[in-house]
Every structure is written in structure tokens, then in C-alpha cells.
Amino acid sequence: MGDQAELRAGDRDRDRTADRLRAAVGEGRITLDELTDRLDRLYAARTYGELEALVADLPGTRAPEVRSEPADDLLLFTRGTRAVRKTGRWRVPPRITLDCTWRTAVVDFRYADCPHREIGMTVRCDSMFGDVVIRVPFGWRVVADEVTSGGWIRHRRVHNTSPVPPDPDGVVLRLSGHIGGDIWVRYHRVP
Fold first, then answer.
1. Alpha-carbon distances, residue 124 vs 31, 48, 54, 112 (angstroms)
2. Which of 24, 48, 50 is nearest to 36 (CA)?
3. What are the DUF1707 domain coordinates in residue numbering (predicted)?
4. Is 69 helix (H, G, I), strand (E, B) or coil?
5. How far apart are the C-alpha atoms of 184 and 151, rounded to whole Å?
6. Are 183 and 159 in contact, with CB atoms under 8 Å apart?
């Protein structure tokens, strides 16, 4: 990196480095505990040199692989003040883990490519300020029987009322985990 090591890094630089770290977890190169530690240091980093030090022991950046099938897992993770947002066009894996601190997380399935009939989504958000907004197309069914808050199942923390009945052949999104805030499921008509 040379002379650039002392230059100030921006949010996009941090996001690219965070993506490399998340990919390293998916490849089995680092553990979730290591990811947590590195993300904490990443969001405190000020320079390119500090960012590069976080990924120095990982293989270099490769061209993105084109996959016909999605990865088995997706980890959406935040630390510090950055919110989690998964929106737009993306390929949905069968398992998603959403781990957020005190920020609102948004996971939008409206324009996603979902080849699965059922998706398991584990939510870990201990702060009472950490809400989760999930946007799904009409016809999907969201089941949140296994979401706990404060050690017991509290359905009132999950706001999930579909304006139309689920499609019998529609996708089922099964939520589990623990939340300190609320989960808001929003159903949308998709053109």
C-alpha cells in the first residue's frame, strides 16, 4: 500500500473491507468471534493502513465468482453505528443470520431471487433499540414462533399481519432467535 497507508479511509473503503471479512467467514478462513473483533476494529479504523492490517492474513481480492446456486448461508452483521440493509436484487440462500446491535436492520425480499420454498432466518439483536424490518411480497408466509425476547416467547414483539392470505405454494420465512426491540414484517404487492 506504500504511501497510501496513512491516507484517511472512507465509509466505502470500510464497507469493502467488511465484505472481505464476511466472505472470509463464509469460506471458513476466520471464525465468527474473529469477525466480531475485526469488525469492531474496522469501524474504529481511520486510515487505509489500519484497514489493510485487518485483512493482511487473508488471500488477495479475487474477481467475484459467478455462482449458479447461492451460498448456503448469509451473514448480515453490524457493529457500531452502521445499519444493516439488504435490499434490491440479490440471491436468497436457505439460511440467513442477522446479527445487529442497536441499529435498525432492513432485509427486503421483494426483488430478491428466491429459489427455495423455505428460508430459515436467525435474528440476534439484544438491544431494545435494535428493530428489524422485513419486507416480503404478498403470498409469502412469515412464521415467528421461535423468536424470544427476555427469555420467553412474546408474539407482540413481532408485528406480522398479512393483508392477504399466504399462497399455498409461496415461500415460508421461518424466524428464530432473540430480539430486544421489535420485528416489523411488511407485505408488499410486487409488480
1. 17, 30, 24, 22
2. 24
3. 7-59
4. coil
5. 20
6. yes
Look-up: residue for cell 446456486?
Answer: 69
**DSSP letter (8 states) at residue 168:** T
Distance CA 180, CA 165 (A): 28
Distance CA 147, CA 167 (A): 23
The single-letter code of the amino acid at 141 is R
The amino acid at residue 150 is G
Is the CA virtual torsion 14, 48, 6, 10 positive or negative?
negative
Q: DSSP character for 169? A: T
Give pLDDT tens digits along the chain (191 positions). 445 677 888 877 888 888 888 888 878 889 888 888 888 888 888 888 898 899 999 886 443 333 434 456 777 766 556 677 888 998 999 999 888 766 788 999 999 999 999 999 998 877 666 788 999 999 999 999 888 876 555 446 889 999 999 999 999 999 998 888 888 999 999 87
Q: What's the predicted TM-score (pTM) here?
A: 0.61
